[in-house]
Write a structure and sequence with these properties.
This protein is an all-alpha fold and about 170 residues long. Helices cover about 80% and strands about 0% of the residues. α1 packs parallel to α6, α2 packs antiparallel against α6 and α4 packs antiparallel against α5.
Length: about 170
């Protein structure tokens, strides 16, 4: 229910054609209340597990016994190197694309950021479905919906009110 309400909230605020700064503040407050409520419930569950089954012991056992520290350190360093290299390449390719296509660097940057933030979520969703973890898929999808429809739209509206032209939306 919370995800549904969060998903339709921006549309409800946009009925008058504008998502104002006050609407943006309300959306950010809605997101904050949701996150506080979610983590309060999650931390209570973790505390119960800690008391019953020794969560801390299982956590330490998983880190120190189940994984090779040297191998994990090498994987971490390789990941950092790959991240830095790929980030540099993305910036260079974006500049090249903007220059050669005549598109604005701002537009190309926005597109690259949109794709760059969507791909990890998409991969997590595909991987969780492949592994049969439907709850992970659902949690990722609902979390993305809640953050994008409340926090992102709220911040955008606080920075600059958002005009909505319903003539552009056709169903």
């Amino acid at each position: 229910i919370a995800a549904f309400l969060a998903g339709i909230a921006p549309f409800a605020f946009a009925i008058d054609g504008t998502i104002s700064r006050i609407d943006g503040i309300i959306l950010i407050v809605v997101w904050t209340l949701y996150v506080v409520h979610f983590f309060k419930i999650r931390f209570l569950k973790i505390a119960q597990e800690f008391r019953k089954e020794g969560l801390w012991h299982r956590f330490l056992h998983k880190i120190y016994v189940s994984h090779s520290t040297g191998r994990e350190t090498v994987r971490l360093l390789a990941g950092i190197v790959a991240l830095l290299f790929s980030a540099d390449m993305i910036v260079r390719l974006s500049q090249f694309l903007a220059r050669d296509s005549g598109l604005s660097l701002l537009l190309v940057g926005a597109l690259v950021i949109a794709v760059g933030t969507t791909l990890p979520e998409l991969m997590l969703s595909f991987k969780s479905l492949y592994r049969g973890e439907g709850s992970m898929f659902l949690g990722n999808t609902l979390g993305s919906l809640i953050v994008n429809s409340t926090l992102v739209v709220g911040i955008a509206a606080v920075l600059s009110p958002v005009s909505v032209d319903f003539k552009l939306i056709s169903i």
